Request: fold
Amino acid sequence: MVKNLAIALGFLITAYFISSSENLKIILSGIAIFLIGMYFMENGFKLFSGGALENILKRFTNNLFKAITTGFLATSIVQSSSLITVIVISFLSVELLTLAQGIGIVFGSNLGSTTTAWIVSSLGLKIKISAYAMPMLIFGVVLRFFKNNTYKGLGNVLLGLGFIFLGISYMKDGFDTLKDSIDLAQFALPGIKGIILYILIGAVATVVIQSSSATMAIIITALSAGNIIYINALALAIGANIGTTVTAIIGSFASNENGKRLAFAHLIFNVITALVAVIFIYSLRDFVDYLAPLFGIDAENYSMKLALFHTIFNLLGIIIVAPFINIIVNLAKRIIKKKVAKSSKPKYLLKSNIEIPNSSLLSLKKECINLYENCQRAMLHALNLHTTELKTKEDLQKQLTNEPRKSNTNIDEIYQTNLKLLYNEIIKYSSFAQEHMTSPQQKIAGNFKKSATRLIEVLKDTRDIQKNLDFYLKSKNEYIKKEYNNLREELGSLFIDINNLNNENLSELDKITQIEVIKSTLNKNDLSNSEVIDDLIRTQKIKASMATSLINDSATVYSIQKKLVEVAMILFIEDELLKEIGEENNAPK
Amino acid sequence: MPLNELIKKVKKFLKQTEENKDIKKKKILKVLEELYIKKAKLKKQKKRTSNKNDKKQLQNKLEAVNQLIKKSKKLI
Reply:
């Protein structure tokens, strides 16, 4: 209610300001068009690159220098540090990048975002860029009619550029005429008070607009029109750099601890950079004045000097902060700790990477492994085995020799309170993520969905045998007790074997071989089981009622094992061809 | 759709399928090569090992590799 009222009030105030001043209307329209342009550009690059951008960020970041350079180049081309940060957060959340690599990219991205200032000050103000905007918009719209994603993406990029140019042109016109009606320069504040005030204004404006590039465009156009003085514009640029960290912090709320750590590192970097820039603002201004002629910038061209200042102080920040990157990583890890969830909430299914196929597939895989681990825990408890002490087959033998206690594990309750939510989220997430995938990627996502379904089936199958298992493990008939203990051993042993597959050091070929060994053991166990049961019935060592229970439960355990092998194949074998080989002629001999 | 265009499309599709088959065949041959190397290694290891349990495990792995070789050959 309060929120709705605040929104309505906000709209009313904005409407009042727009209607009261024609110039303000033009400036605000310019900002709105600029922001729409950035949105189209971001979206266009996502479609146009078709995963290439993610591959570049993944491959060329193995050392800090490369990470910074990649971040710089990627942001300079895409013209959106938010897009790069979102991709980095999504990669961090699925542990595709280390935190240090992610921070490196974001540092580079910060420097890359300064190119916007160069574009606005060099192209935007000197030439009438609205003239270029119109053809871009026309071609952009035409390209959007194509079905092919590359053309559609290119269309969006052109539309984005067109809107950005148009937005800059509107802002420029607005500030030019505003200067004639009100002299904003009279509000210029010299000295430290002015610097602090304008830093605050720059930060708040960036938080509100959610884009430091847009703030920089406003600052440069206002400066070129003479609405603000040069030193205040420098302070506004510093403020924009601080304000942009809030965007990253808001973005990190939806991510896991690694995303939050990245936002923290971003904040540290920008605050330190801003502090250095504030302390040395006059020296930096003089340094810019010294460098400007070397870049062919006139002494009176304040907008280009501002762009140079923006680049220099960000570069200075990287030079100062980059050597301490490991300290920042450790500090971030110490302050933002990994949360251990009591209930099985999804850990990896982040909204931020749902549109990035490679990341969403990895998120799905990790989440399915998380579901597997949770199901395993519940199942082993139901089988009266303790997961924490079950790493090797020797541990299993030790636990099997202990007298079993009655298991209190209520699988239905665990499923309803914990795992159902996780399962639902996996199904929902994969359905949405599949919308943005190619057909081979959709097939992989479909397999992850299948593995989650199999895991829930396995859990319910375990519930079906739990009652008999509890009952016969307490039986005085040693034969039936032994048989049920064998079933526990088979399942426990299978879990240990499958867990061993979750090892990055193991080659794909080793893994598929291991799965083949498991399959062959499984077939042998099934055959021997039926023979053993027949023998026990014939020699009247067990009653008919016991025999029927054992036959049913053995069949269920065999079905559980087959499903678990299927899950292992999906989750732990990445090579699609090896999967196909493993599945070939899979029917029991 | 005119008939000659349809024929062109079918020809293109068949050519692509054939090319994909070739790529897959090459990949399978590479897997087979790796499997044979693994088989030879396992055989050597088995010969060297005196521990009965280890020998049994290696034999199981050897059988699994043989099974995978058979399956790969079926796919060619």
